[in-house]
Amino acid sequence: MKGTCPDKLLLELAGKPVAAHAIDAYDRVDEIGLIVIVTRPELVPAYQGFKEKYSLNKEILVTVGGETRMDSVLNGVRAVPAEYDYVAIGDGARPLIRTEDIARTILAAQEKGAAALGVHLTDTVKEVDGGEIVQTLPRERLVGIQTPQVFGREEYLEIARKAAQSGNAFTDDASIYEFYGKPVAFVEGHRDNLKITAPEDIAVMRVMMEDRA
Asked: Which residue in 81, 97, 134, 162 is a FRET match for 152, CA 20 to 30 A apart?
């Protein structure tokens, strides 16, 4: 898991860092045998101490990211031994991810080849061009994609290498598969699987965690 802002992922939330909550959820998934954390070089020691400090059960491997998001994900997937058939690409900035949602997405990927967690949109979505509304998009066909996104390890490495050389900007890993015509199954998740994008989001997450408890 990789975050672009180390301070955000290491901010305290309910007694431990934001990233520790997300990692704990993946740690409790039976289908997962190894957790790879992708981070900045100066943060490697901090994450290497997570297993003991937060009583994690899975093997933890910490590696360094690259210049771009795609480079960082590739570094993480390359660090996964070949004995693992699938990789679940997650996000340390989603501390409310449910273990059961991770497991369901893994199962869908094993059945379909690739899968991504998300939720159907409830707002009316419109296309805008030049500051003017052009059309209303069919809401029933629109979803907001979250993580995890799960792929076959070897296939992902092959496709992601091509994508990295294409010069295209991909906002997530599912979009790489879309670009090359590969199907990705959609798995309905939960709306509270929000991503922390700024320090002020921490206060909202604290309230949501209290409500869930």
From this structure: 97
Each residue of 25-69: pLDDT tens digit? 999 999 999 999 999 999 999 999 999 999 999 999 999 999 889
In this structure, is residue 122 part of a structural domain? yes
Helices in the chain by DSSP H: which ranges?
Answer: 6-9, 18-27, 44-48, 50-53, 69-78, 99-112, 153-166, 173-179, 201-212
Domain assignment present for residue 1? The answer is: no
- The answer as to whether 70 is a domain residue is yes
- Rounded to whole angstroms, how far apart are CA atoms 23 and 77? 16
Task: Please check whether residue 26 lies inside any domain of the structure.
Answer: yes
Distance CA 146, CA 172 (A): 9
Structural domain that includes position 10? 6-212
Give pTM, 2 decimals.
0.92
Note whether 50 and 40 are within 8 A (CB).
no
Contact indicator for 116, 187 with CB cutoff of 8 Å: yes
Q: For 165, how many CA atoms within 13 A lie in the half-sphere containing its CB?
A: 5
The domain total for the chain is 1
CATH number of the domain residue 50 falls in: 3.90.550.10
Q: What angle do CA 80, 188, 116 make, to 5 degrees?
A: 30
Is residue 146 classed as helix, strand or coil in its secondary structure? strand
Structure tokens at 12: 């305290």
